[in-house]
Amino acid sequence: xxxxxxxxxxxxxxxxxxxxxxxxxxxxxxxxxxxxxxxxxxxxxxxxxxxxxxxxxxxxxxxxxxxxxxxxxxxxxxxxxxxxxxxxxxxxxxxxxxxxxxxxxxxxxxxxxxxxxxxxxxxxxxxxxxxxxxxxxxxxxxxxxxxxxxxxxxxxxxxxxxxxxxxxxxxxxxxxxxxxxxxxxxxxxxxxxxxxxxxxxxxxxxxxxxxxxxxxxxxxxxxxxxxxxxxxxxxxxxxxxxxxxxxxxxxxxxxxxxxxxxxxxxxxxxxxxxxxxxxxxxxxxxxxxxxxxxxxxxxxxxxxxxxxxxxxxxxxxxxxxxxxxxxxxxxxxxxxxxxxxxxxxxxx
Length: 348
Hints:
Blueprint: E1 4-5, H1 7-17, E2 21-25, H2 28-33, H3 35-38, H4 40-46, H5 56-63, H6 68-84, H7 89-113, H8 123-133, E3 138-141, H9 147-152, E4 168-169, E5 179-181, E6 191-193, E7 200-205, E8 208-213, H10 222-231, H11 244-252, H12 255-265, E9 268-274, H13 283-290, E10 295-303, H14 310-328, E11 334-339
Parallel strand pairs: 1-11, 2-3, 2-9, 3-6, 9-10, 10-11
Antiparallel strand pairs: 4-5, 5-8, 7-8
Helix pairs in contact: 6-7, 7-10, 12-13, 13-14
């Protein structure tokens, strides 16, 4: 059994041996804040999924899962088989349509259940979250929600500096009606949403498609602005595709997502992975770290709960495979594990 470090011990060791520390956040960061809101099974209970051709309960029960991404994957796989074996084009089209309903329904239900405003975060929660984030120069997240955005932009917390630059700027000095993402060499961007986020929307500006951010420039409450966009049939940039190939294809179609993943693969120094299941659905992310071109030389992986539990063992085994694949390319990787709970990411 691998030694499980305390989070503070892991950070101290990383700072002593590495010039640059980065963080990769999984959905466990959000679940730790509020399990009832951000667990998939909680979202499934309230998802409306209007336009679904079958009853939601029947679909979820038949497939035996509350995981939206897995349901999307299975619907699309079934649709492909229907078309291949010519059982029925109409049925295949219904399945593809239902997959789109489930995909959009995930954004709908997260927005519906999402905390209404940043003020729900207590000063103590913000202090703990910023303390947790403060050692890192770069932050990459797989979550769609607004918690990270709220924490890094919280006011009156200057004593705990955290990365904040997300690459969004005014279009020009005179044009300040919306924030747009700008990619350029030497970009100061430090926060990357690897699967997109609820506050990011692709819009048309000056006859070109640009990525914009709902923020203080949007006026009013951010979640209210998000819900208004959804009510108008406009959906945010979020990766909800099911299979590895579909995720990669979706990411490659977006300049923002493509750049974020390439910057993850270009990291150096130490990387902490926190709140990530490291399951097969994460392979498209972990492959960036397995690449021979990746310069991360030290990896710290958070383990939740009993290290002997099946979930924890799965994380440990996947991290070890990542190390083996790196070393098979003749590029070493130091691997350590730490207790996720000892990070106190939200509370003491």
